[in-house]
Amino acid sequence: MREPRFWSNPKERPGWQAGLLSPLAALYARATARRVAQDGYKAGIPVICIGNINAGGTGKTPTTIALAQRLIARGQRPHVVSRGYGGRLEGPVRVDERRHDADAVGDEPLLLSAFAPVWVAKDRAAGVRAAEAAGASVVLLDDGLQNPSVRKDLSIVVVDAWRGFGNGRVIPAGPLREPVTTGLARGDILLSIGNGRAQARFDTGWAASVPIPRIRGELAVLETGLDWPGLRAVAFAGIGHPEKFFRSLRELGVELLRAEALRDHQRLSLPLMTRLEAEARALNAQMVTTEKDAVRLPRAFRMKVITLPVRLELADWSPLDALLSRLGLD
């Protein structure tokens, strides 16, 4: 499903469609509020939630990677617990890239497993218990802000700085899982991700509505030695907002001859990949995709597609470091 265009309208002008859908949005918000009010499992180790209020991609996966690396540098043993969206396994099961593929555990857990132990569990509490039993000193709960089954010791709310909270309305009237004030009330810190222009846009559009501390981050391309400027490319992406990936390629100087936006987590079937390969060959171009999409590639295409690796860089780690220290994660 593609987001309706009116979801990205300014909050001051949400659009007539948002008004028409507001009764359904109220029902959705009420159902979310009832769900999050439940009391969950209290773990014996700190649980850090990386979540969002928006539906779709905001940068939670790069945030989880960066936080796992930060905790490891502090001598901690972080384990990630994920519901494994798109995977068939109920869990709890520890992700093993030698045995599992994206169809089994989901693409995000498979990508995250390169950085820290990852548990897929539809029952998040069972996943946290499994991580505790396996020796984790801290759990990173991926996309758990609206999931009440586990109590959180720290909740990081992630938002795309350029998109902000869209028109400020709840699904289906807007892009939000719950109202901004409601979601942020359960958060400890807001991480806005984007470049300088995006952060400035958030400053003027949404910053005044944020009642919790805010830190800023940006996704930076990892240096791999690949010469991006002038590269002729056929790019494809099945992430929350593929246009961000395509924009990044253009900013690197890539000559983007074809940009195929797929559904979020879409299966990269052999017929689809064969078609993209034929188009790339006809255009004398290289196939390019995201790290998250790359883990879903059929084995025959893994050496034919290059990826654009990105990592989250924070302008200032000190506010988050202080919160980690309060949890005893030094």
UniProtKB/TrEMBL annotation:
GO terms for molecular function: ATP binding; lipid-A 4'-kinase activity. Its EC number is 2.7.1.130. Pathway: Glycolipid biosynthesis; lipid IV(A) biosynthesis; lipid IV(A) from (3R)-3-hydroxytetradecanoyl-[acyl-carrier-protein] and UDP-N-acetyl-alpha-D-glucosamine: step 6/6. Pfam families: LpxK. It is an enzyme of class 2 (transferase). GO terms for cellular component: plasma membrane. InterPro entries: LpxK, P-loop_NTPase. Keywords: ATP-binding, Kinase, Lipid A biosynthesis, Lipid biosynthesis, Lipid metabolism, Nucleotide-binding, Transferase. GO terms for biological process: lipid A biosynthetic process; lipopolysaccharide core region biosynthetic process. ATP binds at N54, A55, G56, G57, T58, G59, K60, T61. The keyword Lipid biosynthesis applies. Transfers the gamma-phosphate of ATP to the 4'-position of a tetraacyldisaccharide 1-phosphate intermediate (termed DS-1-P) to form tetraacyldisaccharide 1,4'-bis-phosphate (lipid IVA). NCBIfam families: lpxK. This is Tetraacyldisaccharide 4'-kinase. The lineage of its organism: Bacteria, Pseudomonadati, Pseudomonadota, Alphaproteobacteria, Rhodobacterales. The gene is lpxK.
